[in-house]
Amino acid sequence: MKAANFKIVILSILVMVVGLSCKSTDRGQLSTDEESVNKIENDTVSIANEDVGYEIIIIEPGFNAFLKGTARQEGYYDQSLLESRNSLFVRQWNIRVTQPNNYDPNLYEMPINYDPHIDYGYEVNYKLYNYFIFFQLKYKQQLTELVPRI
Questions:
Q1: Helix ranges (DSSP H) in the chain
Q2: Cβ-proximal residues to 130 (8 Å cutoff; 6+ apart), any chain
Q3: What digits encode the pLDDT tens for the residues 70-102?
Q4: 45-77: buried (b, 16+ CB within 10 Å) or exposed (e) per residue?
Q5: How many whole angstroms separate alpha carbon 95 and alpha carbon 117?
Q6: Which of 39, 114, 136, 148 has the greatest CB tally within 10 Å of its CB?
Q7: How far does Cα 48 stand from its chain's mean position?
Q8: Alpha-carbon span 104 to 123, nearest angstrom
Q9: What is the layout of strands, in order, in the sheet containing 44-49?
Q10: In the chain, how many domains are there?
């Protein structure tokens, strides 16, 4: 099986789309549809590589700002560390997706298709790892025995 033959969607999370359209502004008025679209676009992180055949789409308010301003810069971690941590996080994430009675199904909506035998490259592993850190800190979740920190 060649990885280039597959289009792998790793992660797509839609959070608070309805909330964005109803959120009030400082003036006490409802946000317009255009403002909501701009917020969603600013909070969308997308990565694609046709050579490997993968795509990551993360739509999460605050993640883009976290990635740019809070997360360790690219190159801080080596790819093998990111891959090993992502494998652990993905495994636990997917377990939680299958147990909606034990874990909030609004947080764990979709399984993540991540194959540790495929080299997704540094960028994908870096952004996926940082999404897991962001997710754990924002929603006060702990996916593994590793305490999420920056």
A1: 17-22, 33-42, 63-69, 79-97, 122-139
A2: 66, 67, 71, 72
A3: 999 999 999 999 999 999 999 999 999 999 999
A4: bebeeeebbbbbebbbbebbebbeeebeeeeeb
A5: 19
A6: 114
A7: 14
A8: 29
A9: 8-9, 54-59, 44-49
A10: 1
Task: Dump pLDDT digits (tens) for 132-143.
Answer: 999 999 999 999
For residues 67 and 44, what is the distance between their CA atoms, to the nearest angstrom?
A: 11
Can you name the residues that pair with 59 across neighbouring β-strands? Answer: 14, 44
- Inter-CA distances, 2 with 55, 70, 79, 118, Å: 16, 36, 21, 10
Residue 99 tokens read as 């147990």
Sign of the alpha-carbon dihedral angle for 78, 83, 88, 90: positive
Whole-prediction pTM value? 0.72
HSE at residue 138, side-chain half, CA atoms within 13 A, is 15
State the residue range of the domain holding 43. 3-139
